[in-house]
Amino acid sequence: MASVQKRESGIYHVVFYFRGRQIWRSLYTRDVRKAKRRARVERENYIETYYQNLAGGQCKKVEEAATIGDVVAAYRAWPKKCKTKTENNQIRALLRIVREACGVEDAEEVSTSALTRSLVWGWMAKRQGLEQIDRQEALAENVTINSTYSQAKGVFAKGYREEGCFEGLTLPDLGPFLSVQSLPEIGDGWKPWSPEDWHSMVKASEALEGDLWLVHQMLRRFGLRAGELKVARGDWLRFEGGRWLLWIDRGKTQERRLEIPSDLLEPLLARREEEFLIPGRRVKKGEDGIRVEVIDGEHVRFVRQFCDRAHPNHELRRWAGSIVYTRDCAEAARKFLGHTSIRTTEQWYAHYLDQVEPIGLEDEQLANVA
Questions:
Q1: Mean local confidence (pLDDT), 304-323
Q2: Contact indicator for 65, 101 with CB cutoff of 8 Å
Q3: How far, in Å, are 30, 57, 102, 120, 132 from residue 135 at the CA level?
Q4: pLDDT digits (tens, 9 = 90+) for 321-351
Q5: Would the CA dihedral through 317, 319, 320, 321 be positive or negative?
Q6: Distance between CA atoms of residues 351 and 355, nearest Å
Q7: Range in 139-153, 221-235, 249-263 the model is least confident about
Q8: Which residues pair with 259 in a beta bridge?
Q9: 44 with 51: CB under 8 angstroms?
Q10: 3-state DSSP call for residue 135?
Q11: 366 neighbors 321 (Cβ within 8 angstroms)
C-alpha cells in the first residue's frame, strides 16, 4: 500500500513501507492528480531497482543516513508527551534551520548527515546577518535564534531517542548538532525599570492616539499577553454583576475576568460590535502565530524608547504582575495574569517583592480580577 502526501514545500511524495522501513519518494509535482498517477509507478520502480541491485551485488551493506523527512515522519508517528502545537513548532523549527542553512526549498530531502555543529553556527550567522557567527555580543536577533534552535532540538529529545522513536533509521552522531551553546541575549535577567523611565513612558503615552493609545493601555493595565490582545474580540466585553468585564477566554486553563477601569469603558464599549478590539491586517507567522503591526511594530518601538528589552510588550505584563504581587499576594497575581500554576507566578514575580517599589499605583488603575 502506498499513500500520497504533501510536504512543507508543497511537493507531493509517495509514502510506502518496504522491508520494514518507511520510504518517501518525491513525485516532483505540486499537482495532486499528477502525483496520484505517478505514485504507483515510483513505488514499483524503487522496489525493482532494489532487487536489481541485490542481484548484481550492488546493494550497500551500510545504509545511507536517513533524510530529515524520515526523521519528521518517525517523530510525528511516535506517541507524544507534548501538545500537538509544540510538536508542530519543533518540526517547523528544524525544517527552517535546515532550509535556511542549506539554501534548499525542500528541507525534508536533505540527509541527516548535514546536522552538524557547523550547520548550526552557519545558520546562526545568517540570522545575525553576518558572515561569521558572533557568539559574544548580545544581539537583538539572538532571542529568536535561541528559541528556534531550542525548538528544533526538541525533535531529538533524549527520551524519544532512548525509547526507540527513530529505531530503524540510520542517523549520524547528533551530539555536535545538539550541543551548540545558546547565544547571549539582551536583558538576560529581568531588571526593574527606574521610576524615572517608567514615569517618562506613562507621560509620553498620554500623547498617543487611536489604536496605539488603546494598545498601550490594555497591555500596561490589564497585563495581557500580546497574543491575547491580537485575538481579543468585541464579545469579550460582558456585563455582569453591575460592572463591565473583559473576559480573556482562550481555553479553560487561561480564562479570567478583569474589571474594566472607568476611563477605558467608553473607548472599549465603542468597539463592542467589532470582530477585533484592535483592528488591523493580521499577517500569519506560520500556522499558529499572527502579526498585527500596531501591536508588534508601532507599540514595540514606542516602549523601546524607555525600556531596551528583547520583548517590550511582555515587560509591561511583568510590571503589572509585579504590582499586583507586591500590593496583594501571589495568588492574586496568578489570577490576574492567568497562570495555571502558582509556581509560574512565584518563579517570575516573587523576587520583585524586594526589588520593585510599586510606583503610581493609584494612577495606574490596574484592572481588578472579578
A1: 84
A2: no
A3: 40, 49, 21, 12, 9
A4: 888 887 788 888 888 888 888 877 877 666 5
A5: positive
A6: 7
A7: 249-263
A8: 245, 368
A9: no
A10: coil
A11: no
